[in-house]
Specification:
Layout lengths: L2 H10 L6 E3 L2 E3 L6 E5 L6 E6 L3 H16 L8 H17 L1 H12 L3 H22 L6 E2 L6 E9 L2 E5 L5 H14 L3 E5 L6 H13 L6 E3 L4 H10 L5 E5 L2 H13 L4 E5 L5 E4 L6 H13 L11 E5 H14 L21 H16 L3 E4 L3 E2 L7 E2 L2 E4 L6 H4 L6 E7 L2 H9 L6 E5 L3 H10 L4 E4 L32 E9 L2
Parallel strand pairs: 7-8, 7-10, 8-9, 10-11, 12-13, 12-19, 13-18, 17-18, 19-20
Antiparallel strand pairs: 1-2, 3-4, 5-6, 6-21, 14-17, 15-16
């Protein structure tokens, strides 16, 4: 589809900002709304329901009824599988609409909304649908006088709160395993990007997921989000977002009913490139491409680049040569590889970090400016800082923007210590031709995922999550089922 056609479809796209509760699209009980502003050009996409405590109460009650009458949980796993697979197929069938909503809502290039977000969401839903009737329970090694069954049951009502950077993909990572095992779900998308979550819920109904099983409440975090996490009839809360809010979610769980609380939080991922890197061009391409992908708005972005001093100049020469390829462009142009920052608040935050880097003595090598101001949207040029100290804000705090901080090292142990000297522990990478060095470094890095001689390669078969203040939950893989099920022992005396 040409850029002109994408813009034409954007102008003609019907936006429905109502919540979805019990299979029906409804406005908030208070009648309150908020404007959904597109970062592409700053225009309003339309009003969205501003849900609050009353709407959360209604959605949770509906979800509880759906769970208790077993309209979904009572289906055989194979039956749920068929519906989940149809759900995935319908996501693919509606791919253009979903991708357009995603791009208009949060500013990512349409090419990635199509290839990454839509395809990734469909793959996730399908994967968990396929998996659910292939996971077996256990029989304990008891004496002949007894039979002990160890079974997994759905936890009940799951509250899911997802961020704005990958709205559709993060939603699928929660609802995929939660729905597959038979839970009911109340999903609260970010107020900055609510549209694809609402459309997914409609598609789920079309696929055959019963009304009341999957409900979506748009609204603000301090209103709808906190009410969901505090609700006494929510059995599990799954959250992806900032560490600051994640701490609140865990507190809310403790203040209410001790609901299971799972958090996937921020990161400040180190990318360590040794002088014996097997392919310097590949390392440069990964470092630059990964930090600028999704405008740098990724919790696992390799925002701290540690380069061995003997190759740093050559590395930076190659990296700077790539920067022009990532200049922000029209997100509805399929040739664009870096789009818009999600909103004016985030734009101001990113520009503030850039000013902080300058003030604290880092050397600005590229970018550092607002771009495309004539568009009315929110854009930042791809930015590289050299001479960064590990105590600077740009090396310590999560920027969530296209800003790369470069640090050099002469001793690998020194680099590992600096890499671990953070409150985060999400992902890391090491580039080396020495397999022993790779293993030793991977073991020493306190993170949930270590990449070796690549960055960000993975699939649905491996867990995603972190150590320390990057959270306690694991999305993806069969391990995600652990979050949304309870383990039960049934001991039967047979003699």
């Amino acid at each position: 589809m040409t850029t002109t056609l994408w813009h034409e479809r954007a102008r003609n796209l019907a936006i429905d900002g109502r919540a979805l509760i019990d299979g029906q699209r409804v406005w908030a009980k208070s009648g309150a709304t908020f404007d959904d502003i597109s970062p592409v050009d700053g225009r309003s996409l339309g009003p969205v329901a501003r849900c609050d405590v009353a709407d959360v109460d209604a959605a949770v009650a509906v979800a509880r009824n759906a769970f208790e009458d077993r309209r979904w949980a009572g289906l055989a796993p194979a039956a749920r599988k068929r519906i989940m697979i149809k759900f995935a197929d319908l996501i693919v069938a509606n791919r253009d609409e979903l991708a357009l909503l995603e791009t208009l809502d949060m500013g990512k290039p349409i090419k990635y909304s199509l290839s990454v977000d839509v395809n990734g969401a469909a793959n996730c839903i399908r994967w968990y649908g396929e998996a659910v009737d292939k996971v077996y329970d256990e029989i304990a090694p008891t004496p002949d006088t007894a039979l002990a069954l160890i079974t997994r049951e759905p936890v009940g009502v799951v509250g899911a709160i997802v961020p704005w950077n990958y709205p559709m993909l993060m939603a699928s990572w929660k609802i995929g395993p939660a729905l597959a095992v038979g839970n009911s779900v109340v999903l609260k998308p970010s107020e900055k990007s609510p549209l694809t979550a609402l459309r997914l819920a409609e598609i789920a109904l079309q696929a055959g997921i019963p009304p009341g099983v999957f409900n979506v409440l748009p609204g603000y975090g301090h209103e709808a989000g906190s009410a969901l996490a505090l609700h006494m009839d929510v059995d599990c809360i799954a959250f992806t977002g900032s560490t600051k809010v994640g701490k609140l979610i865990v507190q809310y769980a403790g203040q209410s009913n001790l609901k299971r609380a799972w958090t996937e939080l921020g990161g400040k991922s180190p990318n360590i490139v040794c002088a014996d890197c097997p392919d310097l061009d590949a390392a440069v391409s990964a470092a630059v491409g990964s930090i600028y992908f999704n405008q740098g708005e990724s919790c696992n972005a390799p925002s701290r680049l540690f380069v061995e001093a003997s190759i740093k100049d050559k590395f930076l020469e190659k990296a700077l040569a790539m920067v022009p390829d990532f200049q922000p462009g029209d997100p509805l142009d399929e040739n664009t590889v870096m789009g818009a920052i999600v909103d004016g608040i985030q734009l101001k935050s990113v520009l503030g970090f850039i000013e902080s880097g300058k003030e604290q003595g880092a050397q600005l090598l590229a970018g550092g400016e607002q771009a495309r101001t004539e568009s009315g949207g929110y854009y930042v040029t791809p930015t590289i800082f050299d001479q960064v100290g590990n105590d600077m804000r740009i090396a310590r705090e999560e920027i969530f923007g296209p800003v790369l901080s470069v640090l050099s090292f002469t001793d690998l142990n020194e680099a590992i210590r600096a890499a671990n000297a953070t409150s985060f522990g999400l992902q890391a990478a090491v580039w080396t031709s020495d397999i022993r060095k790779a293993h030793q470094t991977a073991r020493a890095l306190r993170v949930g995922t270590v990449h070796v001689n690549q960055y960000d390669e993975d699939d649905m078969t491996v867990p995603f999550g972190g150590f320390k203040q990057s959270g306690n939950g694991r999305d993806k893989s069969l391990h995600a089922f652990d979050k949304y099920t309870e383990m039960k022992t049934t001991w039967i005396r047979i003699v």
